[in-house]
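Narrative of activities, Objective 1.

The group set out to show that a structural description can be obtained from nothing but a protein's sequence at a throughput compatible with the screening campaign. Below is one input-output pair from the validation batch, recorded exactly as produced.
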Amino acid sequence: MSGYRLTIRHGSRVRRESFEDLGSAVIAMERAVDQVRAEGPLEGVRVLRDFEPGDRVAARIELSTGGWLRGREAGVDVMGDGSVVAYAGGMGRRQLEPPPDESAFDAVRRELGD
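Output recorded for this entry:
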């Protein structure tokens, strides 16, 4: 069994990959974000109120350690304007705030590192 599971939710598509080490999993996460960004920004929508591209999630890319009773989870949301927001946790999700010299991917790596 692998150590890390990457889940990519993009539109109605869900893709999963497994990795033995955290470094490889985070590199795959970065590649997935690049693929989503390459598609360009989302358009704004109006549903009871206006949602700008930065308010919409284009893709959710999550790493999980699996483990007994679910393990740990962290990932990134790729917003419709191309920005990336890091988070930790599954149901009780909290936003990660990387320091100015770190990326969202560094925050995920730090959150899931041993």
